[in-house]
Amino acid sequence: GQQLNQSPQSMFIQEGEDVSMNCTSSSIFNTWLWYKQDPGEGPVLLIALYKAGELTSNGRLTAQFGITRKDSFLNISASIPSDVGIYFCAGNDYKLSFGAGTTVTVRA
Amino acid sequence: NAGVTQTPKFRVLKTGQSMTLLCAQDMNHEYMYWYRQDPGMGLRLIHYSVGEGTTAKGEVPDGYNVSRLKKQNFLLGLESAAPSQTSVYFCASNHDGGSNQPQHFGDGTRLSIL
């Protein structure tokens, strides 16, 4: 599979803070996806990006599809305790390639 | 809506035993996928299917076999389990595998091989 580099690997954030994570690839993707995984559950789709340069929001989440089609970032604004979990980026070129995940822990 | 359902949710096996993991989807999706998730490595594709009666190898297919006899079901088999196959297994599906078709995931099967 194609190599996706996701950073940071983990983060502790204060409730109310904004947080950002990103993903880079050596290859071009047609679609970038961001998933969240809660403990004991499967990944759930948060945001899908279909066009280079696209900026899309879903509530407090904002994600962008990089112009080069080789990167994407996800921002979470005003963190709350339920934002805890593992966030995965994925590049889709008819098959998904996943980043290793960013583990988010919120300090109340 | 059930979506993607995986059974069993947990299983412990001894080395050399065999077992089959079942994935069922009720969304009439053509494409189905099996992944394994290991710490620090994200999800890696084992096998996938583009339709009933078809299967194909993914990134890490060795030690696994799959079958897609019915459109709604995708089975993952371990013929002779090894400790290296201890992992969390996820099934996913999407409509037609196109790059604009996000995959929907089940809740996973946690498998331990002793």
Structure description:
The complex is a heterodimer of chains A (108) and B (114). With 108 residues, chain A is mostly beta strands. Chain A has strands at 4-7, 10-14, 19-25, 31-37, 44-49, 55-58, 61-65, 71-76, 85-92, 96-98, 102-107. In chain A, strands 2, 4, 5, 9, 10 and 11 form a six-stranded mixed beta sheet that branches. A five-stranded antiparallel beta sheet of chain A has the order 1-3-8-7-6, with no helix packed on it. Chain A is globular, with a radius of gyration of 13 Å. By secondary structure, chain B is mainly beta. In chain B, 0% of the residues lie in helices and 48% in strands. Chain B has strands spanning 4-7, 10-13, 19-25, 31-37, 43-49, 56-57, 65-67, 73-78, 87-94, 104-105, 109-113. In chain B, the strands form two sheets. In chain B, strands 2, 4, 5, 6, 9, 10 and 11 form a seven-stranded mixed beta sheet that branches. Chain B starts with a strand and ends with a strand. Classes of the chains: A mainly beta (108), B mainly beta (114). Chains A and B meet through strand 4 and strand 5 of A and strand 5 and strand 10 of B.
